[in-house]
Design brief:
This protein is α+β, with helices and mostly antiparallel strands. It contains four helices and twelve strands, in the order βαβββββαββββααββ. The longest helix is centred in the middle third of the chain and has 21 residues, at about 110-130.
Length: about 220
């Protein structure tokens, strides 16, 4: 995907990726396509996945409005694209880290927290565009095989977290889709199934952050902040 007005190219092919889609059911109705001026009104409300850590750069794209963030001048680490159909696509490579050649690792609580916040932010954009539910929410992790999930972002060396080294056995993980029926619904409760499934895929019985039925940040299994 070329970024218009920039000489760089978004190429995440060889990186482990987090992919999120928000897909309004009426986005398949071509008669409901939004005008670019309507999308542009939401430009400041479209947040990048790691916002505000790296800053968010805006541009137009073939499909609508594109926002992306850089780690440095040469490395784009995520983008979020608002389509004329109302669909929103996000791809991030920053939160599945690879400090050396042996394996990737994911801080599970941190990535769940970011996913939850990002989806809530993008739902505000859809509300502002008067796009009504139902809205399907899809979360995938790609090129992930062998990655290790660690419960908390404690700052400890992942090498020392030996009990968490079972790793993902699948190359691509497509978590169960969920459907938002009303904007008033608690997103933390809605995401319990995909979050539990993420941990299941890495050999754990559930997400430590969803034990209460909704999302509540914890430090380790059984320890609530």
């Amino acid at each position: 995907m070329d970024i218009y007005g920039d000489n760089n190219h978004i190429n995440f092919e060889e990186k482990a990726k987090l992919v999120i889609h928000l897909i309004p059911f009426n986005s398949f109705d071509t008669s409901q396509m939004l005008d670019i001026t309507e999308l542009e009104e939401q430009k400041d409300n479209i947040k990048c996945f790691n916002d505000p850590q790296f800053g968010c750069i805006g541009s137009y794209s073939l499909n609508g409005i594109l926002k992306y963030e850089r780690f440095n001048l040469n490395n784009i680490i995520s983008y979020t694209e608002l389509y004329r159909s109302g669909m929103i696509e996000t791809v991030d490579i920053h939160n599945i880290q690879r400090p050396h050649e042996q394996y990737y690792y994911i801080f599970g609580t941190l990535i769940e927290k970011k996913i939850l916040k990002h989806i809530e932010n993008q739902l505000i954009v859809l509300q502002n565009l008067d796009i009504q539910p139902p809205i399907a929410i899809s979360i995938s992790l790609l090129d992930l095989k062998g990655a290790v999930i660690i419960p908390s972002n404690t700052g400890r060396n992942p090498e020392s977290e030996s009990q968490f080294k079972e790793g993902f056995k699948q190359e691509n993980i497509h978590l169960p889709d969920v459907v938002l029926e009303e904007y008033s619904y608690d997103i933390g409760s809605l995401l319990k199934l995909p979050f539990d499934s993420l941990w299941n895929a890495s050999g754990h019985p559930y997400s430590p952050n969803c034990v209460s039925g909704t999302w509540e940040e914890v430090g380790h299994f059984g320890q609530t902040y």
